[in-house]
Design a protein that fits this description.
With 430 residues, the protein is an alpha+beta fold. Helix content is 33%, strand content 19%.
């Protein structure tokens, strides 16, 4: 990713290409910092073998985050939380059907609605609006079958898709639908540590919103993805400051303030959506991290959450991207650089990348002379003892004691988190 490369090179690091997904099971990654940007399209398992990553490696991935990234798995986890904690706490994601498995339920629901309600079709793990379309009738839902290899046999199977309830009451600016991309950094799973970047990208559709039957197949009305709308006709009545179809969250906040609306109230609701979204996949992710990650140092993940605003200024989660685009487009370069360059710098600063222990020994004097004048400690490289996952008996006893007291007074940790006064502790800075 050019912006990541440029920032780390400017900071004095050397960037090299490496083989992360190796067929050699005994090949390990010993040390260094890895920025992986390969999307896991239509995969149901992690392509990275995290067990091969040694304690001195830091990588921008966690095991099992596909439980948030894949739209079908996100809905499965969201629905489970909805059943456990109720619609009021978990009502911020559209109802979803997994096709072909839930085809019958979807058709029955559409019949009850007299085929008057609108739905949007998406591929479970695609991005940039690929394969998305808006429909009212099941006959309009695209279906694909292809040959799959199963146990040395060729089997004809239908490709899975998801069909979501379409949110038909968007907050409009000058008649255009928009959503926005917020950036969320997770540096730890247990304990859960979440950072929310204060700025982000607002993305407009390029044609004015309409639910007319003839307009349902017009992606320039219903999709806000940059890759779709950069092909649309130029728009002359966007708010000041837009590039192509992009704006910033700070500019959106100013727009709200000028119209007497307080964005702070809305932003608090967005924080609530962020935390509960991560909690949807937390149970499985924490188990996978415990089993596969060798050190608390190993993992971090920058997420891109796409948020929809309805006409009552209520936020809804549309999807989660575990590899949000950091590409700087020439036709929107000014706004991309303004958002993404400081974002990447802040991510790398927060994550605290260490010099490898071997590099710290080999280049200690050069490092001290250039960056740490007066430094008298023995090591300048990574000290793995700071991140070791094995607890001493007294530490285990202390944790058990705290959890027992916590549960006695506040219920389970999850119940406490879902109380209003439990949320702030999850997004405070380290």
């Amino acid at each position: 990713m050019p912006i990541v490369r440029d920032i780390v090179t400017h900071a004095g690091f050397k960037v090299v290409k490496g083989l992360l997904r190796s067929p050699e099971q005994n090949e390990t990654v010993a040390s260094g910092n890895i920025w992986d940007n390969l999307p896991l399209v239509e995969k149901s398992i992690d392509a990275i073998d995290f067990a091969r990553i040694m304690p001195a490696v830091k990588i921008n991935k966690f095991p099992a985050f596909m439980d948030l990234n894949r739209k079908d798995l996100l809905w499965k986890n969201f629905r489970r939380m909805q059943l456990l904690y109720g619609q009021e706490a978990f009502g911020f994601h559209p109802d979803t059907f997994y096709i072909p498995k839930e085809q019958k339920q979807l058709v029955e629901r559409m019949k009850r609605e007299n085929f008057e309600k609108v739905y949007i079709v998406k591929l479970p793990n695609n991005f940039c609006g690929i394969g998305a379309c808006v429909v009212k009738h099941p006959s309009k839902i695209p279906r694909k079958k292809k040959v799959h290899q199963e146990r040395n046999k060729k089997v004809m199977k239908e490709d899975p898709i998801i069909v979501q309830k379409y949110l038909t009451n968007p907050y409009l600016i000058n008649g255009y639908k928009f959503d926005f991309r917020i950036y969320v950094l997770i540096t730890s799973i247990s304990p859960l540590r979440i950072y929310l970047y204060k700025d982000g990208l607002v993305r407009f559709a390029t044609e004015k919103f309409s639910l007319d039957e003839d307009d349902l197949d017009n992606t320039f009305i219903h999709l806000t993805n940059f890759t779709v709308n950069k092909r649309g006709d130029p728009v002359t009545d966007y708010p000041d400051g837009c590039q192509v179809n992009k704006w910033t969250i700070y500019e959106l906040w100013n727009y709200f303030k000028e119209r007497g609306k307080d964005p702070k109230v809305f932003w608090e609701e967005v924080k609530d959506v962020v935390i509960k979204t991560v909690l949807c996949g937390h149970e499985k992710i924490s188990k996978e991290v415990e089993n596969k990650s060798k050190s608390f140092y190993n993992n971090f993940n920058l997420l891109g959450l796409d948020i929809f605003i309805d006409d009552q200024m209520k936020p809804y989660l549309l999807e989660v991207n575990t590899i949000p685009s950091l590409f700087i487009n020439n036709i929107s370069k000014e706004i991309d650089m303004r958002i993404k360059a400081p974002l990447v710098s802040e991510v790398l600063n927060i994550c605290g990348h260490h010099i490898s222990s071997s590099g710290g020994v080999k280049y200690k004097q050069d490092i001290v002379d250039s960056h740490l004048p007066g430094y008298l400690q023995k090591n300048v490289g990574l000290d793995h003892r700071l991140y070791v996952k094995t607890l001493r008996p007294e530490e285990t006893k202390k944790q058990e004691c705290f959890l027992n007291r916590f549960t006695k007074h506040q219920g389970t940790p999850m119940e406490a988190i879902l109380k209003e006064d439990g949320l702030p502790s999850l997004y405070q800075a380290e």
